[in-house]
Design goal:
By secondary structure, the protein is α/β, with parallel strands linked by helices. It contains eleven helices and eleven strands. About 3% of the residues have low confidence.
Length: 413
């Protein structure tokens, strides 16, 4: 009798857990539409039919605090939806010294929104970049580059595979077209899956929103990025004519900054949406359906200024050199009326064999990324030595600055 009662109690307990879980609609992959959206996502569009089902299968294999049903199903009770909105597919680079260097970038926003009023509740930036070196200089242009290999490289970004050095038609079939989820590794599919499964689905009242407000590049910094002060233009952020594309660079810094802080403090951060107009952004599903989402107004924001860059020789021997790549930012944080501010800097050290070619912009990017990681760490726990070396503040000021940021971000969870 007691055994039967305990079994019944267990069944009722798990039934109540399932009943308590909210039903969420899975919107799948979409793109943030622009004037020529199909032209901007050629490889994503070619791979979507293969990757989207794998994405859904992977997410369903993970534990989640909610129930997920595909868009268009007859499940009842859904008031919210999750969609992965791809906002950037880029291949940039070209001839650099005696080699051809390309950077492949694919980024998106994981968006949770309300179905009734189509308003965004959370956004989480995701994305991957990879650099590739090609030795055939005759194909070192966007026009001559192997487009099938482009597709293969983006496929590998999704899957987390690294077999490009073995590239062939058969390799494309084996490690892209015929690949299974079980054969994939730590790629974009799994990054997206981890973010989606970790979403906190709440009906929190008086919801606050935090994110990236503005990103500014000073004239001097823009000049350096454009090729002044004995540097070449940044090869990964130039247009077809070799002119520096400041908006792409701003997008990269914003995405990386938000992604880093969001993951370290477990808080959703809204980044500026490309193509948004009047506080709304339009998404397009694979079946052609378009929806307009209303973006939240930020209660707290990071306003970032890129102030400049500098390179200096730190040390050398007869065979080796150590170079310091300096990046200089100002980061303001606060509400619409007032903000706290700090100048921050970083010296990223890169050692190389004397006489080897130096890719300065790769190391400057590493410097900015390292600074962003360290800045995020200070929000969690502020260190005296770091403050003294990397900011223009006294320790007491910096403690107040980072504590204020931490408290306000906690209110946006």
């Amino acid at each position: 009798m007691l055994k039967s009662f305990l079994c019944l109690l267990t069944v009722v307990f798990f039934f109540n857990i399932v009943q308590a879980q909210e039903n969420i609609t899975w919107g799948g992959y979409s793109i943030i539409t622009k004037d020529k959206d199909k032209d901007l996502f050629p490889n994503f569009n070619a791979l979507r039919e293969k990757m989207a089902p794998m994405q859904y299968k992977y997410i369903n294999s993970l534990e989640k605090p909610y129930l997920l049903s595909p868009r268009g199903s007859q499940s009842s009770g859904e008031t919210k939806s999750i969609v992965v909105a791809f906002d950037k597919e880029r291949v940039t680079g070209g001839k650099l010294g005696d080699m051809c260097l390309w950077q492949y970038t694919l980024s998106a926003q994981v968006i949770l929104f309300e179905l009734e009023n189509m308003s965004v509740l959370q956004t989480h930036p995701v994305g991957r970049s990879r650099n590739y070196v090609d030795n055939d200089l005759s194909k070192c242009s966007s026009k001559e580059r192997d487009k099938q290999r482009d597709k293969f490289r983006f496929c590998q970004i999704f899957l987390g595979l690294e077999t490009d050095e073995n590239y062939s038609n058969q390799e494309f079939i084996n490690n892209c077209e015929n690949i299974s989820l079980n054969q994939s590794k730590d790629g974009l599919i799994k990054e997206i899956g981890q973010v989606v499964s970790g979403l906190s689905i709440t009906d929190k009242k008086n919801r606050r929103f935090a994110g990236i407000g503005s990103l500014t590049i000073t004239d001097r910094a823009k000049g350096i990025l454009s090729g002044k002060e004995n540097f070449i233009p940044h090869p990964f952020f130039t247009d077809e004519n070799g002119v520096f594309d400041d908006q792409s660079y701003k997008d990269w810094v914003s995405q990386y900054f938000a992604k880093t802080i969001s993951s370290k403090l477990d808080v959703p951060l809204v980044v500026p949406f490309a193509g948004s107009v009047g506080g709304k952004v339009q998404l397009k599903y694979s079946d052609g359906t378009e929806i307009d989402l209303t973006l939240p107004e930020l209660d707290f924001s990071f306003d970032i200024t890129i102030r400049g860059f500098a390179k200096a020789l730190k040390d050398e021997t007869s065979r080796r050199e150590a170079w310091v790549y300096g990046s200089y930012l100002t980061v303001d944080f606060g509400g619409p009326i007032s903000k706290v501010s700090s100048k921050v800097k970083n010296g990223y050290v890169f050692e190389t064999v004397k006489g080897d070619f130096l890719n300065d912009w790769r190391e400057f990017d590493n410097s900015v990324q390292q600074l962003t990681q360290q800045y995020s760490d200070q929000i969690v726990k502020t260190e005296k030595r770091w403050v003294a070396d990397k900011t223009n503040m006294k320790y007491k000021e910096s403690k107040e600055y980072f504590t204020y940021i931490k408290e306000k971000l906690a209110s946006a969870r």
